[in-house]
Design brief:
The protein is built from seven helices and 14 strands. The chain is of the alpha+beta class. A seven-stranded mixed beta sheet has the order 1-14-5-11-12-13-10, with no helix packed on it. The protein is globular and about 55 Å long.
Amino acid sequence: MKIQGSLLRMSTELNNPVDYFLTIGDQKIHMNNLINKEISITWLDEIHCIRCGRKTNKSFHQGYCFPCFRTAPETDVCILKPEMCRAHEGISRDMEWSKNHCLQDHIVYLAISSGLKVGVTRLTQVPTRWIDQGASSAIKIAQVSNRYTAGIIEVNLKKYFADKTNWRNMLTNKIDTETKLLEQKSKAKELAKKEFVKYFTDDDRIIEINYPVLTYPEKVNSFSFDKDQKIEGKLLGIKGQYLIFNGGVVLNIRKHNGYEVEIKY
């Protein structure tokens, strides 16, 4: 089978294990079916902005041309720093977009991707956000009505909890198995400023996530189409937004949003 089209972040369904789907052109590939098979992905020397479709020589913010990077609400500062969101004050690059994305219920959560981390996501992005981060388990700790409030709670908790994932450890499955999320949620509630405690949720469900991986590599080597034209080999697994090939070579699909490719399998 040979398919051409633009790469986009894989869509997912929370099953045991997670199901991954890659849309290329007008076809959707159930990537789980390709595990333990030989595949190749070749970059066709074109990148198109995932927002406006403009051809661009360089991708910004995982898939945007430079003009869209400068003006699109999807690339505004609050995407990476929720505490800097100003949509609740009526300030946004696009208020209609912000009404649907920033002025919606958000959660603050704890997850274990490599080690324990605190994070923020829109409620409707659960569990997608956790899957994209390669989390093995996660729990909601607080729920609020907008992105800004979630951001300032996260800033408060970052004094005590990490907010980054070690992607290499995540992909080699070097996971913290000792930490108990319920205990850490209680700790977070004790450490949070009193004004934030009212937002903590009684939902103590722990979401466990298993990924379709045959064999985890001992070491990983990140592949980039900016350096090499083609990646090929046996697909051994998928975790986060990474394809894991034999030899420890990994491809971050989300990083290459908008890249025109040809997939053979």
